[in-house]
Specification:
Strand order of the largest sheet: 1-2
CATH topology: Herpes Virus-1
Oligomer: single chain
Largest sheet: 2 strands, antiparallel
Shape: globular
Structural class: alpha+beta
CATH class: Alpha Beta
Order of helices and strands: HHEEH
CATH architecture: 2-Layer Sandwich
Radius of gyration: 14 Å
InterPro entries: Znf_TRAF_N (IPR043013)
């Protein structure tokens, strides 16, 4: 379901001091989206896949705002 699962659910994401399980719990309705890096995600009942209006990368719609804060192409439009 997640595409990539570390062997150990207690794995701590470097620099964040949160386990994968804690991140999934914090993003309950977006738990899939938080770990999805598939450009062709076909999960149903999940946020739809959209393209960034600046760089055209495909991502879950719930990630757009965060992505735009780091997208290198945004500065070309302002």
């Amino acid at each position: 379901m997640w595409g990539y699962e570390p062997a150990d659910e207690d794995y701590v994401v470097q620099g964040f001091d949160l386990s994968i399980a804690e991140i999934k719990e914090a993003h309950q309705e977006h738990a899939h989206c938080a770990f999805c890096y598939s450009l062709n995600c076909a999960e149903i009942d999940i946020c739809k896949i959209v393209a960034c209006k600046y760089c055209k990368i495909k991502l879950h719609s719930c990630k757009v705002e965060d992505h735009e804060s780091i997208c290198i192409k945004v500065s070309y439009y302002y």
